């Protein structure tokens, strides 16, 4: 449960809607990495639309608007109790997503208790009348899907994704939570510890602390002054009575919007909604607070960070998502972020390591953030001055009209991709109805179409006013080198009470008790071109779009020449600077004209509307096979990356990841090779060309095409553009040699900016990815740590003790190596306690059989979750590419399903005994010195 972006979900899947609002040059941070949790997508947003009674509307949609985003094919209704319902069919997979949006967030929190809405969101998973917390967690695991929630200033959203046949179960859960939340003192006392751990985690992020200060300045004197996270002092004062008062005021059907998308019959689904929610009474709603931020005087902030590079930033007040001029502001932000724009031009000019713009709108107000990166020890004043000069020129002289038109075209075309993910489709509708006060997402088209260059320039002249800007310089600082220690030598004891079997309510038991034998998944069409390139095609006609995703098997640790470490990064970055046919600006214009979302390099992709697929693939192939690698940009990038690497080598994040690697592999292993400023500067332009010619090979390449296309058409297009690509020389070995088992050890990586410790407990394994024991380890780990809210680690380290906010465990595989890790975040005084508990849970997996209930739950979770792994076209492509990279057959998922179905408790215990070592963990901690 989170306050701005969902974490800790248990489902599978990948978004297929977000395409190219960033750029490749800076793997440092812009946007989500720095600003995580502070905003939803700048493309959509939402607030309650005027409810419409009754069923399907058959009006033909505009050619610009996908049917899934307009009134066509959509069922909507308002129940007598005021619950607004929207149901959108989508046949991508036998999957359904439900999203219950309560029209309340931290903006309505009581004075002095800014995290009340966030705390209540947590408590919604602690049980309600007729469904206690253990039953809720068990049902969630049996469903096999993803479920979670997030809180913003304006809306709190609860979402489930599961098999379509389980829709009645999802609706029953939400109806019970809406009408009878338990909110016991004992439950809040336990959950308080977890939510305070979450606060500690976010306060450990310099990016979060910066945005928190920014929000308090720009929205001073309004309910937006505090974000939705809350504070530890306020949570210390919060009690269950305060939470109940907030729940009783705001959690009502007449203050909620229910959105359902997936492979369901809309009319039947609406009847199921009426059955589940019809008896929930409506409530009188309090008056909402007024939010009208006033312009603030210019301010300057200076913050230390643990980032590898520094940032100059300038923030401006901007409209909210429900504002009449939101579309204009959104187009302005797209133009400012464009790779053809003046901000990005700072990069090829050598004035910034990266540069861009992020628009962060809430419902009733927002802000924009211009960023430019400088190397550690670099001239921050010069970077800031260059950034301000660009923004001032835009304020005075406006932006190119052609960039405005390109941004409009992209925003409208991007709507087509929404149906390519069941959960994304639900989110876009939820956002439109709750943040933007639209009747449908398709209504945004008219607003974007109406935007003119004159309107954008007029808004830019008003918004980019230095008199109201908040300027900041985020300066990286070193925190010290890792401190090594000896291993622990054995697991300590931890007294954990055994869980009682969970008896589900009759309605849930009836729906979820049967474990059906796995049914094979239809296989894609697979072919190999004469040059060795493998092509996988999965047609799906849920939208008029096609996506191509590809990867080249490569290994920089083995393929970079000695003393030239960094040539791989330089090669990848240079793909962003044009082709032998088009320079950088001309190539980006060609993409904008289609429009297409393209990325080239070792991993490459293109996404277009159906009618433009051939054009998009032609441009991708041009970039992938004929990159310009301009000498001038090589010189600029080499100097930039060398300077940035000096900061990276001292940054806590890098030192932490390197400490993990060093604990698991022997000294001198190829993965321990590291780029330095000197090795970057040793790379020549000729080295880049030779590296590209050696590594980029069709016989090591796999391409997956998904979407509105036939296998025959996909093959014809790919063969036309990539068929002439030829491999030169013998195929290189890109596989790392197996490594011996690691020894137990510990290391501490100081991080001055963190108040919470980040902990990884890790070990290497002796089995290969092809070993069938992998399936038993995966099944057992679902019980131990990857099963979300029902896992042993989650229950013991969070629910029972409150030691951590988040905890999980996972296996990592490549063709020759495997490892296992447990990770968590905890306050320093709880690190040791959490480790002891985790190690005891691991040892219990080896010493005792898992219970019949645990085994049945894990099987249900994995088997019922298989369809969810294919609930987006991005997830389908990712699954096939992942299997290819591991050298596994494409029916491996079916083999795994059959192994899970027939597994016994003895099989799991034997696999954990054979391959895992409770006394063999390396422990790596980043943050303050922990208490062991």
From TrEMBL:
Highest taxon of the lineage: Bacteria
GO MF terms, alphabetically ordered: metal ion binding; metallopeptidase activity
Annotated ranges, domain Peptidase M16 C-terminal: 243-409, 682-862
InterPro entries the UniProt entry points to: Metalloenz_LuxS/M16, MPP/UQCRC_Complex, Pept_M16_N, Peptidase_M16_C
Keywords: Hydrolase, Metalloprotease, Protease
Region named Disordered: 1-20
One matching Pfam family: Peptidase_M16_C
Keyword Hydrolase: yes
Biased composition (Polar residues): 7-17
Domain Peptidase M16 N-terminal, chain residue ranges per copy: 85-231
Keyword match Lyase: no
Family of the protein in this entry: Belongs to the peptidase M16 family.
Protein's UniProt name: Peptidase
